[in-house]
Write a structure and sequence with these properties.
Layout: H1 2-16, E1 50-55, H2 57-75, H3 77-81, H4 84-92, H5 98-108, E2 113-116, H6 120-126, E3 130-139, E4 147-158, E5 163-174, H7 185-217
Parallel strand pairs: 1-2, 1-3
Antiparallel strand pairs: 3-4, 4-5
């Protein structure tokens, strides 16, 4: 599973990299390809089902954004001029694969198999029992803002694209300015690391939501 996710992640970043010059512009409306008619499915989620996952455009943009943020933290000019503790905090708190790997492990605990696909045609050809549309969004610290946000939404559909339900988690934190003159390097690094805490809090909330969704249908 980790090998397939890594390969898919690399492909997504390569395809999206040129299209995302800075922070991603997220759509307020998730991809509409599964929403024709808004029909609700009679299928219930069960542990023995196979699952196929595809990404929304927001997730593709978000992965590219996180990859660029992380790469800049590791090798940009700021990294070379900044205290190593601060640089490491930026790197540790912007892991591009954190949300995807966590999400994959969460689904693997609940379903028989979980596979990721590049697009709708690929998942249709594979014919899993359930199709999941994954939407992730992040906002990390910049020189202009210390507001941090993270969200993850997984919408579940049956093989006929009828809506089954969704699981979601989100968190946000507004912090004091990072680069206040009174702050020393350890304090700055600790504050930067809080943006990883925001991401993990959102993922924990997603796990609770997912478990509730499956329990409600059992």
């Amino acid at each position: 599973m980790k090998v397939r996710i890594a390969a898919l992640f690399a492909l997504v970043v390569a395809l999206a990299g040129c299209a995302v010059p800075g922070a991603p512009r997220y759509s307020d409306v998730p991809d509409g390809q599964f929403r024709a008619g808004g029909v609700t499915s009679g299928v219930t989620l069960k542990h023995n089902q196979t699952v196929g996952v595809i990404f929304t455009e927001n997730t593709v943009a978000n992965l590219a954004y996180m990859e660029r943020y992380n790469a800049t933290a590791q090798g940009g000019l700021t990294a070379r001029l900044t205290d190593s503790r601060i640089t490491q905090a930026y790197v540790d708190s912007s892991d591009p694969e954190l949300a995807i790997n966590w999400f994959a492990q969460s689904l693997e605990k609940q379903f028989a198999t979980v596979d990721f696909y590049e697009d709708l045609d690929s998942v249709l050809a594979a014919r899993p029992d359930v199709i999941v549309l994954l939407d992730t969004r992040s906002k990390l610290i910049t020189e202009r803002s210390s507001d941090v946000q993270a969200s993850i939404v997984a919408e579940f559909f049956d093989a006929d694209f009828k809506f089954i339900g969704k699981a979601e988690g989100s968190d946000a934190k507004s912090m004091s300015p990072i680069w206040a003159h009174t702050k020393r390097a350890p304090e700055i690094a600790a504050q930067i690391n809080q943006q990883r805490d925001v991401q993990i809090n959102a993922l924990h909330k997603f796990d609770v939501s997912l478990a509730s969704l499956i329990k409600a249908q059992s």
